[in-house]
Amino acid sequence: MFYTVTFNPAIDYVVHMGEVRLGATNRSESEEMYFGGKGINVSIVLRELGIESKALGFTAGFTGEAIEKGLADMGIETDFVWLEKGNSRINVKIKSAEETELNGQGPDIDDKAVAALFEKLDDLSDGDTLILAGSIPSTLPADIYERILERLSHKKVRTVVDATKDLLLNVLKYKPFLIKPNNHELGDMFGVEAETDEDIEKYARKLQEMGAVNVLVSMAGDGAMLIDERGVMHRCGVCKGEVKNSVGAGDSMVAGFMAGIQNGDYEYALKLGTASGGATAFSDGLAVKEKIAELFETF
Q1: What are residue 115's phi and psi, to 5 degrees?
Q2: How many helices (H) and strands (E) does the chain have?
Q3: What 3-state DSSP class applies to 100?
Q4: Active-site residues: which are they?
Q5: How many C-beta atoms lie closer than 10 Å to residue 46's C-beta?
Q6: How many Å is the Cα radius of gyration of the chain?
Q7: Over the chain (299 residues), what is each successive 10-residue block's mean pLDDT?
Q8: Which distant-in-sequence residues (6+ apart) come within 8 Å of 82 by Cβ?
Q9: In sequence order, which residues have a C-beta less than 8 Å from that of residue 199 and are 6 or more positions away?
Q10: Of 11, 87, 159, 287, which residue is 20 to 30 A from 71 by alpha carbon distance?
Q11: Phi, psi dihedral angles at 100 (to 5 degrees)
Q12: Taking a C-beta distance cutoff of 8 angstroms, is the pair 48, 289 a contact?
């Protein structure tokens, strides 16, 4: 079974408009709403690829109810911890000449709620996969990722971590099955510029030496690189298309890779991950299976 964790789910309200005039009334040309958060994005794309998952995390208020109902309507199983106070956040994403985001803070998460999440994670069994993605709300302890992986360390649970800098570096001792920095995040971890293939491979291997089993590095328009658990480097180019959306492409890549790796073929998994990321980048929302299949056939 696959599980995803989203600490701070959101309703993403996407507004398309022409010129934005500050201090004036602006009217949209069109708008859409999506249920967001990095872990939720992974669950949605996994569903498109035929893999069931259970979405965990925290929800609150009328927006939290909408998120839970919306995901259920999409066929995604959820088991969120319900918070008594506050509301799950709404993120406003303005698509005009430039892309602007107004992201909400979300509700406070107390120790009792964290303990309830840990109890749910205790139900994971050997062979399950847990995907942790995204930043940590300010009301959660900074070492929450470490605490989760330490709690599961006695089980044979495959863990995936998509986070930045210290959040990622601090969990490497628990040997996560997959980590997915982009090349800029990779450079930030080591205080360098990681732009060339040689540099990216060098520092990806350092992360593997520090404990990561597989290191997948996304490189935007330059494709992706994988250092697999055998130490073999795989390189994949980028899919061709018009970029419409930058939200969720990395999450889609994680979902595609984990869906593709079920047969143990890393080359296939890298291509499916790249196609899934591209399918989101070239769409208004998250990737759908038809678009993923179309892009995969171009490799």
Answers
A1: -60, -40
A2: 10, 14
A3: strand
A4: 251
A5: 26
A6: 19
A7: 95 91 92 91 96 96 96 95 95 87 91 96 95 87 93 94 87 95 90 89 95 93 91 90 82 95 92 94 89 91
A8: 58, 59, 60, 64
A9: 187, 192, 193
A10: 159
A11: -125, 140
A12: yes
Distance between CA 36 and CA 44 in Å, rounded? 9
Whole-angstrom Cα distance, residue 28 to residue 189? 40
Q: Kindly report the CA angle at 249 between 55 and 198, in degrees rounded to 5?
A: 120
State the number of CA atoms in the 13 A half-sphere of 77 facing the CB.
7
What type of residue sits at position 135?
S
Longest CA–CA span in the chain (Å) reads 58
Q: Is the pTM of this model over 0.90?
A: yes
The HSE-up count of residue 106 (CA atoms within 13 Å, CB side) is: 27
DSSP, res 238? P
Q: Which residue has the tokens 């000449």?
A: 97
Closest CA to 12 of 246, 280, 247, 289: 247
Q: Which of 233, 237, 168, 223 is nearest to 201 (CA)?
A: 233
